[in-house]
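Provenance and format

Records in this collection were gathered into a single text stream. Each protein contributes a sequence line and a token line. The two records reproduced below are adjacent in the stream.
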Amino acid sequence: MLHTRKAVAVAIGFVAALSLTACNGDDNASDSTQAGPTASADKAGGTGGAHQSTGTGTGTGGADPSSGTGGSDRGADTSTGDNSDGKVGICRTDNLEVAAADNTTDKTEGVVTVSFKNSGGGNCRISGFAGVDLKTSLGDTFSVHRNGEQALPQILKGGETAAFNITFPVNDSGGSGVRLTDIVVTPPNETKHVTLKWPAGTLPVTDGKDGGKLEISPVGKVSDSPAG
């Protein structure tokens, strides 16, 4: 693993990597490019809470299954929408509007919510953990690990939304901390990623393991998302 200019241990003590680590599957994620405010096919976007951030990604991303940072435990499903045999295909990146919003209410633990809105029209299936990499202002990239909660399968109708949270320690040290710039998100069971702007504050710098947790929850359906 390449070393960064400064070893930063956040959560259980992560070390920033200079190259984008994989998000899901067996392939490595390629660099993403920023784009306009919405996403369908090659674009990503949507609506969210305060400090909403939207973006887009091109290329593919994956993760080493042993790392615990990729998508669902199941392999990628190449089907889309409702199949002729009645099975519901997975939610593809191209049919999802992806957004990130800062929902932090605690002084010690921050929350960024990433949402997936089904904009593809038909029903689709989403289950497991998304792959998440964070980029810093120094150009470093590191993966965010799962929180260990059980992932439940979800069916999204057209217009419905699923989401997950990124929890992170709030920087209350008075220093500048680690400034994050981007979130690289790969939906569960997918290989194509989306890049969003980081909508929240900085992370504390620590050389120990007591800097708080930085982790993601499994994707879950948003109960009040309208079907359209």
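Adjacent record:
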Amino acid sequence: MPTAPPTVGVPTPPWRRLTVGEPGPEFEARPPSGPGAHDFPDTECDGWSTPQFTLRFASVRGAKHRYYRQPRQDAARAAVHEPSGSVVFAVADGVSSASHAEVGAAEACRAVVRRMLDLLSHQPGPLNLHEVAQHAAARLWQLARWETDGREPEPGEVTGRYATTLVLGVAYPDPAGCAVDIGRIGDSGAWLLDLAGGTYQALFETKTGADVTVVSNEVRPLPQVPDPLPSTAVRPVPGQALLIGTDGFGDPLGEGDGQVGALFARHLGAPEPPSPPWLAHLLDFSRATFDDDRTLLVLWPRAGVAAP
């Protein structure tokens, strides 16, 4: 009986950009310009699993920045704390009016993840997310001092260079599933997605809620750290996914009951989580008027695995 020919090396059609509703304009992305812009690639993604969690994140440059040769100003970082099995994460959206917004977002995420890993290694109990956010703010002040040759900058100078939103959190495994503490500065968001029903529960106030009559784009970004820090604690279980995203994702998502919500519920609720490149492909959907950078981090608690 003849055997089927091997498929290795057979070319496959390129992924076509997904369209949701009325598409936005199509054009070839232009390279970002300016010193250091090459350090912020158009698209970034990552993903891995531990015995307790599966994690994916992706960050893509929006159409506006692709057209005007500006770098992606969103960032995300995540890491596992090996001794405890906890997962720490940060998502940031550099404020467009800041001259180095992409640097502020990336450095805030790096500072948050490093600080949380260090604290988990040296202290028992839940992390103080307010202190972690202050550490990230201190990092932005440090960058501004370097820019001013050691002179103490004014608060407006730090904000004018590096202002960014920030969502930071830590997921602790336990025998019942996991416990997640989340803090927020600015207007990036967090949601619980019911994978079977495809419904989204916003964990923070949104700009597009049913009770919002006037949409505001005003934010109070890092390096400002509100006291108390807006925060929440959730216990996602298998059958749910925790989503952390910038407003480039949150604005088209809305209440989650439209086409964007259905698209992500279908793929995030599949029997297997999407690969990191596929999540980036989903996130790069085309929809008219939505041209901002988009970043999404997704955490699935895994079933039937005991905490260490």
